[in-house]
Amino acid sequence: MREFLIGFNKAFESKARLGIMSVLIVNETLSFNSLKELLDMTDGNLATHLRALEEQGYVSVKKQFVGRKPNTTYTATAAGRQAFTDHLNALEDFIRGSA
Q: Name one GO biological process term (predicted).
């Protein structure tokens, strides 16, 4: 059983981080508010999970002003895309029982 778990990435164990990465893989860039709405998360919860993914180098953050309003956008990095793909492949192998 242990060999099946080797490819799993602990960064994507939580439902929130799995959701964040899934949404960012499909959408090149999303604002904080768009992520919050799509994932139905609170500001604090989303910010905590985004920070953890940023610290891993899986998500990049861009802060700017649009008019007078602050706008923060998030993008999955190349490393994040690869790590997420590897994680999904490990999950698929686990489900199929062919690790």
A: regulation of DNA-templated transcription
